[in-house]
Amino acid sequence: MTIEGPGAVSEDVNAASPTLDAPRLASARPGFAEVVAKELDAVYRYLVYLTGDRSAAEDLAAETFEKAFRSWRRFDPRRGSPRTWLCRIARSVAVDWFRAETRRRKREETYAREVSPIEELGDGLPPELEEALRELSPAEREVVALRVLLELDGPSAARVLGISQTACSTRLSRALRRLEEGMSDVRE
Amino acid sequence: MSANEMTVEALLRAHAPHAPESLRERVLALEPKKRRTGLPSRRLVLVALPAAVAIAVAAAVVNGIVDSGSSPRSVADQRAVVQQPNLELGKVPATHGSATGPPAYGSTTVPSTWRSATVAGGPARLKAAAPATSGSRLQHTDASIQVRVPDTESLGEATTRATRIATSLGGYAQSVDYQTPQQGGGVSTIELRVPSQNVKAALTRLAGLGTLVSQQLSVDDLEQRLQTQSEQIAQLRRRVAALHEALRDSSLPEGQRVLLQIRLAESKRALAQRINARKGTISAGATARISLVIGTEKSIAPVPHPRGRVGRLLHSAVGFLALEGIIALYVLIVVSPLALVAGLLWAWRRRSIDRLLAT
User: Which residue among A5, A69, A148 sits closest to B32, beta carbon to beta carbon?
Assistant: First the structure.
């Protein structure tokens, strides 16, 4: 059974989709297709910012939703929003990717210096901001994505990152300051 | 947040990447994969943990109820502890009948110590307990009694009476150790020997010297040993007779005669030893040993009053809970190093993730 296209995201679609309806535990919780339609962009953005690689983010987003689909039965809406839950899964998937990527780079460094392809993080983002964004560490980009793009609140973002709210705020302030500095340098 | 930062945020939001349509189609076309058997959810643990505690407590209470219901324990075949305050002398538990059973001469199944009983109970209500010894079997009785008297004056009197009781029943006092320290109190330890048939009477009368604090009694069945010794004696006698018969032969060569005489001497010596041993066995069966300790209130602590049903229930349940606690502690001791390793692994993993994303 497959999920129909994005336009079919409604209660009717969920009702017609037994495989997706099956994990639904409570009437209050949304259907999985609904969540996919609503949160796909958010998860993708988060992964683009985290990895700095659009094609990787695409693969990781697919993997994230696959994992989410498998464990959809365990999702408890009372413990957090679907977005927070998906971001946590996405982060776990991305961490695995980072590990694999690090190993791969180490292997390749033995033979040749890798030149990573430059991809845009945002759609039509000003070049100076794009550059400043690239200068940030993945951890800093991650917090920017969660707090700014995905508009998660402090506690939710901290939960996704596995750090305290204070640490999350500090990291966000630092990242935004660095972005601002990058922009200022260009302006000057 | 500054105005510049706001600008940055607005720019980031305005130019946020959008998931390509191919990804959307890919995700929406997800097929459910074979579900893996996952670990129990946290909710299940939250239910299972209190349930386990409730079961443990319930088991302890049930154990307490069961134990408190069967407080006066029945006498086992070999050894038993009797805590029956009103147990009358000679009125033994029903299981004793099976222990005395049919005579088993030559049988190896007869235990040497076939019955033993200990009595400990309330000072006033405690009565002596004694086995109904079988008259036809040779048995050795070993008893020890502890009696409490109010003062040193009564102690001396009770010691004298104890000796008289033993004498009047055809026995004697093997040793008397009478001590009355200056700081008060006093203890008299008397080793008595009385004929086996008078053990019951002796115990009853000795228990009447004061307040019976405790009594322990064991009976060894000597029938098997006596039977073995008798058979050995008969065999040795036959051998001696045969050797005598052989030595009467005048045609016997000198060398062989000497050899037979040596064997005869050895057999006679062994026969004498066996006869002595059998006398000892018979003597042991004929007399019972009673160790009597008479003490004053100061020297012999009173035995706590036996618990009621509720008390026993609580005692048993608490004991059971303590046992469960010990098991839980043991499990904790075993598991804690693993938990520590798991914790360290978790911390290490978290640090490695931070390092990974910081660069």
Answer: A69
